[in-house]
Amino acid sequence: MPRSACLRLLIVSFLLCAPRALASEGYQLWMRYDKIADDKLRVDYTAATTSIVLATPTGAESPTIAAARDELTTAFRGLLGIDANIHLTIAQSEKPLGSEEFTLVSGKGTVIITGGSDVSVLYGSFDLLRRLQLAQPIDGLALREAPKISRRMLNHWDNLNGTIERGYAGRSLWKWDELPEKLDPRYRDYARALASLGLNGTVPVNVNANIQFLTPEYLKKIAALANVFRPYGIRVYLTARYSSPMELGKLPNADPLDAAVIKWWHDKADEIYALVPDFGGFLIKANSEGQPGPQSYQRTHADGANLLADAVAPHGGIVIWRAFVYDAKVADDRAKQAYNEFVPLDGKFRENVVVQVKNGPIDFMPREPFHPLFGAMPKTSLALEVQITQEYLGGSTELCYLAPMWKDVLDADTFRPRPGSTVAHVIDGTIDHHALTVIAGVANTGSDRNWSGNQLAPANWYAFGRLAWDPALTSAQIAEEWTRQTFSNDSRAVSTLVPILMASREAVVNYSMPLGLHHIMARGHHQGPGPWVNVGRADQTSVYFHKVDEQGVGFDRTATGSNATGQYASEAGSQWADLATCPDEYLLWFHRLPWDYKMRSGKTLWTEIALHYQHGIDTVRGWKKSWENLRGVIDDERFTATQKLLDRQEHEARIWRDVCTQYFATFSKLPLPSEYESPEHPLDYYRKLPAPFTATNAPVTATN
Ligand code: GCW
What pTM value is reported for the model? Predict the structure, then answer.
């Protein structure tokens, strides 16, 4: 057969075999730019975008404008058909806009994207493309957009050896052995994904820091990454080991008030800025889980942070100092320790320091009340840190859409200094008038083709970015946006997937840690139940947190117990301290109660615990049924992959349920309610299972 005929045959057979919807490995994330199926819409969009004007303060070409042009060109070709060619011009604008602000004005076939900087024109371009992908009208637009929080960043817990602490999506994206010479094209796609959401910062390496990253050799690699990210408006920040002046500089100590230590950090900062002129600054985990810090020299966290802040200040850098500290030697409730440590330091940090606080006082549990530091340090910039990677919510083998969890904290009222002072307004600086504002998400990215370990987990990356831009967006709106862009505008896709996403966080809470139970996961890998864990650091064991015995279960954090409720404004604290007003979700977080405690439902605590576990797994079973609606509606590849994910999730939910209820039953000595399905295996079977029995886990460097 001649070659051309052979080729034709190949093409024809490929077309015949092509599935109804385009197959996908998920690599393109929410930037698929598939051809719009609706002919009329395509015609309308083509007419509305006859001319696109990118208006910038200089009106000049730049790598960022080139990135915007590339993105628009690729997207329009995809969305409107391969032959579509857009007419794109660059103009100068004198509109007084903030450096990340843009306007989008359209009509009569022209769309004008005006930015206060080139990067905001890029943001405006992505905004326009989002509207097209969502099949929204784009004629007659007149909008003005600016982010609420100034530094919106991903924190990667990636290690130098390519593993990722709490990572469930393969290996690190950063190929240190190839850098700086070889640049994986994926770095640019990573930058595109961040910019599409308006994320503008990245900390590529683990907070459990490795001194190597501050060596000249590695700083060159970091600089190479920064060069790829810069056109996309992304600054690089670095973690640093507090003891670096000793380990790298061979100094006798790392005391923040020591002149030689001060000089060492100043020199290091100068060296970094010479290579990375827009370096963002340092992110520091100090005196926490074995990491060195200023307290080793009887200095405070403020002394420690200020040392680094002074070193980067001449270059415009900042220091992000984590408040995730707790000490097994301190007798007080672990939930109270960060507050005890940091509140006395309010007002003692330099202007370019921000204290980064996890959403809750323990550690990214499936459900926690908001961290008591929010609202309690008015003279200090406070950042919110959430975890996108699902360390405690199923790794990448379970679906859990996290926006509802983050909204819980963003919308929580701290009542400080007055009602209505939500965490979102603490961190966006409006309550206490801080200009330096930060939000950080611990990334769920890795080398897997789909970036995040399964086809649905990128929804969390997307949701984090959207909430970082505007914390007032709703979880449902974001879920719908993501679904439409990632899967399909078909109403069946939206009406099936959005409700599943929206229910998923509650389902995971129900089958793992319901009613305020927390930190009862397996030791080390944290994937799966371990309510029996009673060895190791006391404040990292399960028994420390559930305090189960024959009388009852739960942690008394009211005035009769640790009085953690006293760290909150009285409006919040007393609501939780009073059983009459404490919501069921936080019950065992704040109260220790007898098994026969009568719940609002009229049922006993024991019955409610069991039914919550059962309800969790039943919800997952419901999704498995409704997922069937999407057979043939979305591509087979992602349909099947997600079907398998949900099977796995049901299996893991069952393990959680069987383990926890049977374990608690050994104390309550009560039978399981009649509606409760019998456990698959006895408790002993699960206790003997080799860990980890769920997700693949990279080795962790943390102690817990
Ligand atoms: O949640 C815990 C994790 C550790 C992590 C630590 C932290 C990077 O188990 O793996 O270490 O939090 O946030 O510092």
Answer: 0.96
